[in-house]
Hints:
Layout: H1 24-28, H2 35-48, H3 64-76, E1 82-86, H4 94-111, E2 114-118, H5 122-128, E3 131-135, E4 142-147, H6 162-177
Parallel strand pairs: 1-2
Antiparallel strand pairs: 3-4
Helix pairs in contact: 3-4, 5-6
Amino acid sequence: MNSSGGIKYTLEKYPRHIFHVSPRLTLERIPDGDVKAYRDVALELIELVGLQGFEEVYPYQLSGGMQQRAALCRPLIHDPPLLLMDEPFGALDALTREQMNLELQRIWMERKKTVLFITHSISEAVFLSDHVMVMSARPGRILFNLPVNLPRPRTLKSMGLPEFTSLMEEIRGHLQVTGRVD
């Protein structure tokens, strides 16, 4: 974990084994006798994100997108009801980011987790969300909540739909009113 409490995506100093999907603090929280169960869950998650065959490599040996998919496994290993994701794909190139949006949507549809996803990308927000909430600058408060009633699963072609474009324009309009976009 870094000083702000977030999980770093590169864990080069950790030993080579299946638990790369989980930082050391997670390993220390595994109850005695449950290591095999967690190993089985880790293997299932690695398969879920399409990383089978890469279980024994160091994270620095993975591409950026593969590291992000491994990072999706970390919180899922404990099967939480809520995933908090603060700009997890912000550092990725546009194509990898789109692929990760598709991956996250697929995982969400399979696992049915509630996801609180923070992003500065309007198209990403519309693509992934059932509701887009726009926050003010300091102090942070919710300015508006826009339902996204687009059918799932969404594909990259969904971004070209008039309804998708209309939602993006509505969000951009709210941001212009608040002075956050020129």
